[in-house]
Write a structure and sequence with these properties.
2 helices, 2 strands
């Protein structure tokens, strides 16, 4: 793999992206503990909100002084892939799907 010249349009974009990514990673490292604490608190809020559902409700709102937390409920159906496969139908109704995902990983210096 070769390095992209920095004096090209894509090279300039890569340089900006790397600088921003480094800055963001630095800030995110300081927020990690707070994110973990918030996640635990949100789980407790969710558990409380679950107890507030009544028959026929699709959402429950809990208002604080600055934010409102809404727990929504939706019911869906899903396919039993094991049963379809056992009946020989899974392959017949399976179709290819193409997804694209851009990932970023740090280049380790030797």
């Amino acid at each position: 793999m070769r390095n992209t010249p920095t004096n090209t349009p894509i090279g300039e974009l890569l340089g900006k992206a790397e600088g921003l990514k480094t800055e963001i990673e630095s800030v995110m490292a300081t927020l990690d503990d707070k994110q973990k604490e918030l996640k635990a608190i949100l789980e407790q809020i969710k558990k409380y909100a679950l107890t507030q559902f009544r028959d026929g409700d699709t959402k429950v709102s809990i208002k604080g002084s600055r934010y409102e937390w809404v727990l929504s409920k939706s019911e869906t159906t899903e396919l039993d892939k094991d049963a379809l496969e056992a009946d020989g139908l899974l392959e017949k109704y399976t179709r290819p799907k193409t997804n694209y995902r851009l990932t970023t990983s740090e280049i380790k210096e030797d």
